[in-house]
Design brief:
Blueprint (H helix, E strand, L loop, with lengths): L22 E3 L18 H13 L4 E3 L7 H8 L5 E6 L8 H19 L6 E4 L10 H14 L11
Parallel strand pairs: 1-2, 2-3, 3-4
Helix pairs in contact: 2-3, 3-4
Length: 161
Amino acid sequence: MLLNPETATNADGIILSNVTRLGLGTAQFGMRYGIANRTGQVGHDEGAAMLRYAGEVGIRLIDTAMAYGESEACLGQLGVSTIQVVTKLGNVPAGMSPALVRDFVRKSVAGSLARLQIPRLYALLLHRPEQLSGPLSASLVQALLKLKLLHAPVWVVRDET
């Protein structure tokens, strides 16, 4: 269902312009996640219903991560080509050479794109942004800047979990 988010409301009367800045977190699509989670990982049909409802209420962005178990693969199977997808780069292993850091980043993002079955990310976040100030920082920044030209904007946020 395509709606104009500036003027439309959904079936529940929610004005879509009020929710277009929200994103749907998808950790439960790939693993048991959350302190209140009583049912475990989201099943295929439930995931499809969640994505459908998110679209109906104007949510156009999903957040996932390489570290969220099978979340990226599940989302790829459900089809997310019309949604803005944000994923996160995992922890770069310590002690890597600069060339290996660049290769790790490139392969990680290529793997995410393949699992998600999309050609481009909306954004790539860092799960461990403190690595930007460590011994791998120059190599990591160089790899991320190269990705910015190829696949996605790169944003850095601190995940306090």
